[in-house]
Amino acid sequence: MNTKSISRRRFAHLVGIGAAAALVRPRVSFATEPSPARSTSSSGGIVRLSANENPYGPSKKAIEMMNGSYNLCCRYPDEHNDMLIDALAKLNGVSPEQILLGDGSGEILKFAAETFTGPSAGKMVVADPTFESIAHHAEVNGAEVVKVPLTPSFAHDLAKMGAAAKDGLIYVCNPNNPTASITPKNELRNFIANTARSTIVFVDEAYFHYADSPDYESVISLIKDHPNLIVARTFSKIYGMAGLRCGYCVAQKETIEKMRPRVMFDSVNCMALAAAHASLQDVDQVTNGKRLTNDAKTFTVTELDRLGYKTIPSQANFIMFDCKRPVVPLIAAMKQRNVQVGRLFPAMPNHMRLTIGKKSEMEAFLSAFKQTV
Amino acid sequence: MTSIWDLANAQLRDLAVYEPGKPIEETARELDVDPAQIIKLASNENPLGPSPKAVEAMRAALGTAQLYPDGGAFYLRNAIAERVGFARENIILGNGSNEVIEFLCHVFLRAGDDIVTSQYAFIAYKIIATVFGARTIEIATREFEQDLDAMLAAITPKTRLIFIANPNNPTGVISDQRKIDMYMSRVPENIVTVFDEAYFEFIDRPPDTLRYVREGRNVVVLRTFSKIHGLAGLRVGYGIAPNELIKVLQKAREPFNVNSIAQTGALAALADVEHQRLTKRVVDEGRAYLEREFTAMKLRFVPAVANFIMIHVGDGARVFKEMLARKVIVRPLKGYGLAEWLRISVGTMEQNKKCIAALKEVLSK
Q1: What residue of B is the nearest CA neighbor of A106?
Q2: Both A292 and A193 in a single domain?
């Protein structure tokens, strides 16, 4: 294991190079240089509250690490892949064999759908509404997809989902996208304990860091007792790395081994690996991100409430509120006013999903929203 | 007790695992030396590093890393299309060209289908086809040259895809225009042919396969930013094909498969013609040097056209290991059934010289 620590030291050495380089070179002003490959960022007057991105960006340590890593771009990222896996294993108290990295957690969803659902492998059971990606992958592979409506409190209806499943996979997005609601920890715990081992329970914890309800918990600690449990996380949200594409899942080793043949070698790029590794060492990234998001969220929810719009209690970096009219024309009208909001979720046609941006962006939203309605 | 392998798809049990080139850091640890002393000539990477223009563009793009990438990769696909003389609708991007191979297998292969490729072909085709339950028919080469006639003759009713790596990795042999034209005149309509041209930009007079894309044939041409552009770490490759074929492949693609920094870096690299020219020159000179040295050492090698050379050393595993002890990482080829051969990537002239010096020491023992 000594070899690993040397490896980390080398990686840390690279950060040193990055930091030193930053001192001697004029710093590039990131905020003022929009990427030519993106026409839809919250720049140029457009307020982007549509994709649940982190308006504060990646950790400064991640930026430094990336700036020190350009010389790695010509190399296949094999070793740094292993280093991030080691760091994530340590963070989650599991062994490295229990971690799978993906080109964003989207790729993890793809691996899981392909491995555990299909005409012979079994059905895909999802909530309605929920994040659609995994159901899409199941359909591509010819699996039957069963949609189970959320309960009146916007939790997953685990009893009905369990009853609908046969082998295959049950997808639980917690906190749920698009409703930002949670499924209570006791219910989920019991459900995992009582689900047949031939059915995979896949818990997507993309928004884990934003949830602070006493009724919420991560289920990573349950993995040791449940070979059919997979938990996914992402660097796209609190770590502000959506553009870089890095996600992962945790499961028992043998469950990971079933998915592993589908993993392309080197599916996570060197910049994402560098940034993810550095981000894990920056605790402020999480605490600051949560605090700023919560402040802007409280402000927005209060204002909407004052205007008579009810918001589903949110445990994420976005909210869903009842806009009291079809959301589709509203989305278009807001776009006219340079404010991008979340897409339609057909199960809730009169609700709007709204990303919590910076407070100034939320003010811009509220002003445009008032004018529109 | 039942093993988990009893539950998993049977074809996966004997599936070979891709073994990448040994990383520099790992080698440095094992030898307890500074990584800067290690010469890696094992993964056909660009010895000059990434295009400086790409680095500049990436630096500017880091500030928007929190935003999802442009899933349609509008600017990069346009730029590639313009470079190769097609429209954006003829281009699909992969998270490395490996991912485009995955799309192809995903879309066209069902359990029990066949793919046809050459003996010693790039191993990714077989690995990915196997994941989808397909069988790989490998056709013997003639002196390492892919036998396109025999590949055509091997087609079965279950054959969906034919993979022709041109030049092939690791052998380095290229099929010329005449052979490709002959092949294309005979390949049945219902089979998709994949020309993997990862090393295209290194070739002096590369055969033209894009004419078949232009004719609307079932042809996909694969290219990558991992080689001449020096961006292997960023993961971006692409396929060029008739629009209908691209539409089918898009179904298997994750919406945000190519990260935003890679899109920005690749776009700048594509325009950095100077870096491409310099890389090709360094590789041309390095390759000529290595071949001269191999000839002088009376080593058998396969005449190369790209940035790597396959040489016959007898006991490949031993030579690999002893080269490693001399801080030079090369690629053993036992996994390809070429245990007596090594593949050496062309490096900078300084690296090539050190490699030859180490090789002379090892082979004189």
Answers
A1: B254
A2: no
Burial of B326 (0-12, 13-18, 19+ CB in 10 A): middle
The pLDDT tens digits for B76-86 are 999 999 999 99
Structural domain boundaries enclosing A207: 72-281
CA-based nearest residue in chain B for residue A108: B254
CA B179, B182, B187, B189 dihedral sign is positive
A229, part of any domain: yes
**pLDDT tens per residue across span B323-349:** 999 999 999 999 899 999 999 999 999
Share of chain A above pLDDT 90, in %: 84
Among B259, B267, B270, B308, which would you mutate to test the A interface (most chain A Cβ atoms within 10 Å of its Cβ)?
Answer: B259
- Give chain A positions within 8 Å (CB) of B57: 36
CB contact under 8 A, A35 and B264: yes
CATH class of B52-271: alpha beta
Instruction: Name the nearest CA neighbour of A246 among B252, B54, B234, B102.
Output: B234
CATH number of B21-49+274-363: 3.90.1150.10
Q: Chain A within 8 Å of B96 (Cβ-Cβ)?
A: yes
Q: Return the residue of B nearest to A138 by Cα.
A: B252
One-letter amino acid identity for B140? A
Do B31 and B325 form a contact (C-beta atoms < 8 A)? yes
Cis peptide before A77 (omega within 30 of 0): no
Strand partners, B72: none
ipTM score here?
0.91
Provide the CATH number for the domain around residue A334: 3.90.1150.10
Partner-chain contact A271 B58, CB within 8 Å: yes
3-state helix, strand, coil in chain A (%, to 5): 45, 15, 40
Please state the domain count of chain A.
Answer: 2
CA angle B25, B27, B28 (to 5 degrees): 65
CA angle A290, A291, A295 (to 5 degrees): 115
Measured distance between the N- and C-terminal CA atoms of chain A, rounded to whole angstroms: 62
Q: CB-CB: which of A6, A243, A265 is closest to B18?
A: A265
In chain B, domain spans: 21-49+274-363, 52-271
